[in-house]
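Notebook, p. 212. Picked up where the previous page left off. The plan for this session was modest: take the two constructs that came back from the sequencing core last week, fold each one, and keep the raw output in the notebook itself so nobody has to go hunting through shared drives later. Recording the first one now, exactly as returned: residue sequence, then the structure token string.
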Amino acid sequence: MAGVIVIAGLAQGMGREVAKLMAARGWSIAGFDVDSVGVASLEKELAARESDHLLATVDISDRKAVLEFRDRALDRFGHVDTVLSNVGVAFFGPFEEADLDKALRCLEINVIGMAAVFQAFLPTMRARREGKLVAMSSLVGQVPFPFESIYSASKFAVEGLVLSMRYEVEPFGIKVALIQPAQVSTGFAAKVHKLPPEGSSYRERVRRFIERDEQLIESATTPSQAAEKIIAVLEADNPPVRSQVDLMSTVFLWLNRLLPLRLRDAILLRHMGIRE
């Protein structure tokens, strides 16, 4: 049954496709993103379809703006049934060479940003004793990949936060779930693919990793295909705690559960073309 969904991070990619498909299924869409151009174009699409919506340009790290959007959404719709946190930025490169100030920004957006939007809507869900909180995690939230140490750390944190919070909020009728994509054919990863400088000890392995990763992206699940699977979680009465949207994440998470660490690592490094 349709209801009201908040989507944080809906200007592009999977978030945008989820918003459009949910609107087509009769849901009211409340959402925001820092990408003002993407928000404006999505608003035009939803308006052309006469879909009930409230969109805004909001930076997830602006706590006051997130709470102001929460208030606007509740004033407009009265309540919210589901919140999807799709906020996130990528981070790529050898850990030794990582800019830790930029790393802190990644953790702020990916972890605390998610926490901010969930915390904003939790009180009314708890009062109504129903609701659903869904976070976009990643395969690397359980299976860390080389050259993605900071991003992996952020997704490990997302999973830990959500799984811990689940114990606290489920007694109030609130369902919690994680989505764990690996490769989806968006520009998300490619935007940060960058070779280390000449002379870096990591340059050649990073080059091979990028080459392989971009091959995988070309044949990966599309945002619209991923959105269909995400919607199945959003609309489920009792969604699984973890769900995947692509074959790669399903396979590697299965291997992660069953194989000894050394064998899993060997498969991963061979798969990404960087096993020495």
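Okay, moving on. Second construct, recorded in the same format:
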Amino acid sequence: MPDSNTDTDSEAAADSQTFLARMAPKGALRPALAFAGLLAVGMIAGSYLLGEGLHRFKGADRSVTVRGVAEREVLADLATWTISYAATAPDLASAQASVDHDSQEIRTFFSGLGFPADALQPTGVNVTINKERDSAGNVVATTFTVNQRMALRTNDIKRAESAVHRQFDLVRRGVLLEEGSGMAYTFTKLNAIKPAMIAEATRDARMGAEQFAKDSGTGVGGIKNATQGYFEVSARDGDSGGGWGVSDSPFKKVRVVTTIDFYLR
């Protein structure tokens, strides 16, 4: 199809030549016609280049935004278990003696499972004074509650699971575990698998872009822009919480979503 802008420019150039032929003196007619010819060629070339530039600019702006997903199942490499327990007695010494007894029972329990002594460490203690009052506000009884926390930290995941499965042995030993005494598993080697997962997510995004391009009759070019998503580490079989008697799962799922803009050609 003829370019309407080129036709218009050609007509304008012809009109210019006709006007100069009528108005210019005979001696100046030839230079004037030559100048008009150069002017016409310049107008036509400028119009072509402008149109071609706009076409290229429009083509360069064609892109598609897709998301790529990568998932991987991993095994946790760190187990931490915070064990909370307490004892209440009419005097502080008796409450502390009861807590010390429980602490020894806990150490014996983990030692029997093969954990080294330094795997279990005390992390905090708290003393609460409880005063019971009568209707007149007078103190009629005073009790002391000692709260103790110990934490297990280990990279031996199988041994940690064994401890969780036998945690009710502590109850049989007289240790009353408080709410929140659950095992937590953590995957600490995320940086080691990040590059491979980002590459996998990028390939997944390109597959989506190629399918889009195929459906629209175009092709996929290079990456225009890319955004790495947040790496999420969750329990493989769903979050089971971490309350008393409930443990986290050592089987984890790592997931990342990337957003990529691909050029279309």
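Notes on construct two before I forget. Confidence is low (pLDDT under 50) at residues 48-58.
Flagging for discussion at group meeting.
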